[in-house]
Specification:
about 250 residues, mainly alpha, Rossmann fold, 2 domains, about 55% helix, elongated
């Protein structure tokens, strides 16, 4: 499940850190992983039935929940074939694991319990035998995309009048309506048409399964032909290396 989730996040262009290393019980959490947790905006925690058996996983979780308090990190919990109340209250397999931890990791049990309780109280996803995992992954990736800051907030915030024009353009797009919608932006050269279109793209593109920004179409088609633009467009939309033999083939 985590492997498919990771692939979907990467395909969406979200820089994701996944730790594949396992440490023997009792070893300390590694500095590389600590750094990755601290520098992340969002932490996805997948609670499985045997999650609490691992002191390594519990150390990770404790550090993640610390980053929630100190850095405002967002945590998205996923309960994978486990009852969220078992996570929150350390019941079932989690209770059994903690009875063992009391003997082997007594000095850490308190902080682990607090981390599990705090994470278990957060709203997240529950995946069980009735869930459609591919659909759940799609929803999770969409939620993560929407919670990440957009390019617009970083690049265009100082442009005078951009916010009003952007809101006007977005209202005309009617993003949640059905069907196809085409918007034309007309004006003199240097008036900010491309800047406005780019700002809109940066702000809303994450809402779509596929998206592409093609610029300088007239110049590029005159230089290289429409086939090259078609290849670029199709490759970005389909997330695959597409070659087009002719303009007609590209259209089809």
């Amino acid at each position: 499940f985590v492997d498919h989730l990771y692939a979907a996040l990467a395909q969406q262009g979200i820089l994701t850190y996944k730790d594949d290393e396992t440490l023997p019980r009792g070893e300390r959490i590694g500095p590389t992983l600590l750094k990755a947790i601290q520098e992340s905006r969002i932490a996805l925690v997948v609670f499985s039935g045997n999650y609490a058996d691992s002191s390594w996983c519990l150390d990770e979780l404790a550090h993640i929940m610390e980053c929630v308090d100190t850095k405002g990190q967002i945590v998205e919990p996923i309960s994978y074939f486990v009852d969220p109340s078992d996570v929150r209250k350390q019941k079932g397999k989690y209770g059994k694991a903690f009875r063992k931890h009391k003997r082997e990791n007594k000095h850490k049990v308190g902080s682990w319990r607090k981390a599990l309780e705090k994470a278990g109280n957060l709203s997240g996803w529950v995946i069980d035998e009735n869930s459609h995992e591919a659909k759940c992954i799609k929803e999770i990736v969409g939620t993560i995309s929407s919670r990440l800051p957009t390019l617009t907030t970083n690049v265009n915030k100082d442009l005078i009048g951009i916010e009003t024009r952007l809101q006007d353009l977005k209202s005309k797009l009617k993003i949640k309506s059905d069907g196809v919608r085409i918007i034309g932006i007309w004006g003199v050269g240097g008036g900010g048409k491309t800047t406005l279109a780019s700002a809109a793209y940066a702000e809303i593109s994450h809402r779509f399964e596929a998206h592409c920004l093609l610029q300088n179409i007239r110049e590029e088609s005159n230089k290289h032909g429409l086939e090259k633009l078609q290849e670029k467009f199709l490759s970005l939309i389909l997330k695959a290396d597409v070659k087009v033999g002719s303009e007609i083939e590209g259209r089809s």
